[in-house]
Write a structure and sequence with these properties.
mainly alpha, 30s Ribosomal Protein S18, binds zinc ion, about 0% strand
């Protein structure tokens, strides 16, 4: 059987063989952040400790440059 995501309880970054999480990859980051801009616990997302740590740094950075849409902030496209 191919290794498929069973209940999403496997680190997606490991699955995608992500070596370093790019803070500019906001589409990916969004999946791991709540609407309030909080990082979703890895128990929920299944992210491994190593990647969760990188994720925290990436989200923090993305937040600083406001790539991620946060509450009260509307981003217009094009
Ligand atoms: Zn991982």
């Amino acid at each position: 059987m191919a290794r498929r995501e069973r209940h999403g309880k496997f680190c997606r970054f490991c699955q995608d063989k992500v070596v370093k999480i790019d803070y500019k990859d906001e589409k990916r980051l969004q999946r791991f952040v709540t609407e309030q801009g909080k990082i979703i616990p890895r128990r929920v997302t299944g992210t491994c400790a190593r990647h969760q740590r990188q994720l925290a740094v990436a989200v923090k950075r993305a937040r600083q440059i406001a790539l991620l849409p946060f509450v009260g902030r509307h981003h217009k496209h094009g």
